[in-house]
Write a structure and sequence with these properties.
Elements (H helix, E strand, L loop, with lengths): L1 H12 L3 H7 L7 H22 L5 H43 L10 H4 L12 E10 L7 H6 L6 E10 L5 E3 L15 E12 L6 E11 L5 E12 L9 E12 L19 E13 L4
Antiparallel strand pairs: 1-2, 1-8, 2-3, 4-5, 5-6, 6-7, 7-8
Length: 291
Amino acid sequence: MTIATLLLLSSVYCGNVAAFSSSSSSAISSPSAAAALKFARNTSAQRSSFSQQPPTSSSAVNNSLLSSSNDDNSTTSEAERLRQKAIRLRAEADEAEKQISPTRSSRQVDTAAVKEVAVEYFDLKDSCWELSYRFANEPESKDDNDSKNNKVPRKFYSGKVQLQFRSDGYTTNLSTPSNNEGVSDQQAIINKVWGWDLEVSDQDSLSYILFSADITLPPPISASERFYFQARVDGGEKEGEALSLMDGSVTVKRDISAPSGGWWGIFRGADGILAQFRQLGEFRCRPIAKP
């Protein structure tokens, strides 16, 4: 029986099971021979299934890795190309801006220079202010007779001046030009600013700052005269409350024409004894930093 089993296995492995079964049918009728035949068939089927699977070659694995590497290289090169393009565009923009504005070294603006620090004063002594003024050379006529008698045309002037009210009572003009070049016919020339004083009004019991200035008016007026400035001082009543100068007015002193005859005749020949302040315009003040 052992020889028959071996013959059967050899026949199945070589594909000659049919031939062998016809000649040795009696030998495989035993249970041991049937079991051996079943084992041989299963082994042959597994080998056949394994042989039908496609082989996994090393070249396929290498191709896959190479393809992944190529994709990574392509992504990196595209990012580098875009970065280089952005750098070129930035350089072209900087060059164009330098041609438009050569004085600027960079496109960044110094915010500290642009932002203006708020200035507050709690005492007028040694305080600095910027005055924005607008006034005329002559006061407005009260009636038609003044208009006919006054042959000087009425002209308005505007500008700015920076002043410091010193602690000794004098006033310093911080914006005095070195010369009068570049002064337009709409801007008055402030030659000298006299001392300042703080007074309390008898009418409203409020505090006012008073000072005067010698001003030259450019052509066609071409005249020099003393102008008087007055502004109300607000604030400072409570602790920590900053001062402000409000409702500034510009005035000039004008003689009063005395009527002829009667009691007024005693003032004839004494021009300048009777005078009044006539308003010419106004000004605004804002505190500025000390020089």
